[in-house]
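The methods section describes the discrete structure representation at length, but only in general terms. Since the whole study asks how a given chain folds, the encoding of that fold should be made plain. An entry of this sort, consisting of the sequence and the corresponding backbone structure tokens, reads as follows:

. . .
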Amino acid sequence: MRSNVGLWWLLSAFFLLIGAVYTVWNIVAYPDRNWYNAIEWVGSVALVFSGLMAALVAWYLQRVHKSQGGELPEDILTSDVDDGDPELGEFSPWSWWPIVLAFSAGVAFIGLAVGSWLVPIGFAIFLVAIVGWVYEYYRGYFAH
């Protein structure tokens, strides 16, 4: 996290410096115009705002790093891969219901393109798929 914070601050400084250089370069390149007409505003504003957005991300990451109460396993050179591997929940790799759910979304979106009569069919398949996925542990081989 500390290296990310440093990289974002470096990126912010780079964008702000390049924004200033870009603005001054435009003023110097057109000496016959007034300074406010010589500036190419779109590029100057885009570079300055990119620097400000990078500074916002850097500030946020710095605050998170300060409040997390220690280094993350990714930042410790002697840590293993398993040290940063949290328990994400219980997933059933044998389940077919996510495929049926994706099929229902496909039918509904094809219904938007081809004919609106397919949208209720896709919604009905969606209801069957979501109920089947929620209750798959209450029936069959894996019932609790």
Observations:
- The mean pLDDT is 88.
- The two ends are 42 Å apart (CA to CA).
- The chain has two domains: 2-75, 97-142.
